[in-house]
Amino acid sequence: MVGDGMGTSQRDAIRLASVGLSGELAMDTLPEVGRVHTNSADEETFVTDSAAAATSMATGVKTYNGAIGMDVDRQPVTTALEIAEELGKSTGLVTTSQVTDATPAAFGSHVLDRDEQSAIAAQFLRSSHPEVILGGGEDHWYPEGSPGRYPDNPDEDPSEESAGTEGNLVEEAMDQGYEYVWDLPGLQAAQGDRILGLFANEEMFQYGDDVEETYNPSVPLTEMTRKALSVLDGNQSGNGFFLMVEEEGIDAFSHVNNGALTIGSGIEFDRSVALAKEFAEQDGNTLLVTVGDHQTGGMVIEPLGGADPTNPDSPAQEEPFDVAGSEQQFRIDWTTNGHTGDDVPLTAMGPGAEMLTGVYENTRIFDVMVDVMRSGTERAFDLQSHRGGRGENTEESLAAFAHSLELGVTTLELDTHLTEDGKVIVWHDDTIQPEKCADTGPATYVDPEFPYVGDRVAELSLAQIRMLDCGYAQLPGYPEQVVSQGNTIAELRDVYALADRYGADTVRFNVETKVEEGLAGGPGSAALTEAVVSEVRAAGKAGRTTIQSFDWSTLNLVAGMAPELVLVALAGTPEDLGVGQPGAAPELGGIDIDDFGGSVPRAAASLGYDVVSPIATSVTPAMITEAHGLGLSVIPWTVNEAADMNALIDLGVDGIITDYPTRLRTVMAERGLPLPPAYAG
Description:
With 681 residues, the protein is α/β, with parallel strands linked by helices. It is built from 21 helices and 26 strands. Helix 19 links the parallel strand 24 and strand 25 (633-634).
């Protein structure tokens, strides 16, 4: 819950005016307290705007002022709302501003400039898909000259008029199944599980030049919050929900130095927090966070006494304001009409709230929200189908991945390489092996590189790769493998598209960035890593994708460019890791495993990874205990015999990577473990 522009003084003024010197606001009764740095990464000023601040909270990445869901390099960054959707949760955006204004926009869209409000609305419908969208800003959903329920050029602000650039988005929303409402009775009567409510041309209040300033939304924030909680809590998935609620009036009226309306909108915000707190207390499993994105106006609370002779240039000094329940009064002194660089207070309750105590950057809010969401959806034993289940089907073929989806696995495990022309393909080997692939012909009439078998993947184009038949024979050592005749090596995007066609909205993807022998940490690894992250984001699968590698330097790259992704440290034998050998192993990103007593969990935890995936023969009870104590999951590879599967489950591993998913599913069923859902094509 975001009180836009709400710093410490705004919270204090709201408290004094509404509950007095000894009373407490609902937001101040939340037990965990933090102080949040708000600076942006803008080149011109570190004092943030709402777009950069909201993007930091929504994505965990600092960025430039005006950015919506973009990093400083103008690249989209996955948001907490999008991760929630990928985890099967329902999501909602509620605000008294335009629903396409900076704060809600940063959670559900990606544009270079916050003013692209019609593009933001279109992305809500075409990309992020929040189930509940409630607020103002109807003008950006209808084309110019085509007003909706609210007429163009109203008396209270003649400048307001429809200005959409993406067609009639209200009609598009209704075609998608949204129930459209435009007033309080309609909202209260709405029965759908997807609701779009637009209750004003622009903001749901009036402020600014040549406008009478008023705060009287036709649909109060409390009513929008109440409805959003009801709809989202009633979703059928059972996976919970993510909701962002914003009161924009605190910021707007601080910009124009109107203390009375700043307080009035703040009181309505606190009432909405009270509703959310009541829900969270009854539910018992909900994280509630209340925070400002920045401080606006440089508000200071002072005693009465007329103009301050020490500050004659102050933009505004307002008095008197009554302290509730007493005969005392106070004055508000404003020092600016803009934002300040002040920290803002945060209060929280519920699972994970203790991680929000102390002093920290606003990016931590994203980290904690995502950790809590994931902790609530990843409790089941992780059945990972290695290379799509190569013991049962041609490895890393779309047929293998389809078989795994139809069988029912938690995770599709797969490998990636980068072709000469920069395409991310799903294949294990860095050279084309004759026992797996056969040439069918050249990619062009005359191709000096033909034949391709035996060549390095990195030196072949996608067109050349696709001329290979990589399902022409059964792989030696896998007598049960069903051969996919004529199999063509797929791209990573093809696997994501396959899962979408199956409607596999809970299956996960464990994507390995492969490294050629002796080239760990080199430019090829970096290029592959960057390309994989780009593909994951383009597919909208960051919430269900983990990145694993034996080359830990690539995991470090991912941590910097995509902090939303879960990182998996693959580990081989002690000899592979350099245990007992002098110097740092290149594969471990330059660290010496002996500095951590040869412990894979300790080394992985020191680098901020989330999962350790050791060779199965190295797993011991002590390793599992140590990993779990450090907050790491343990998922060993590659386990193919039922006896070994049972032994590892007895030890307490969190999942298993196997060539035989049917075999592991049988073991899980015999042990009474919950089975992942199967999907029909």
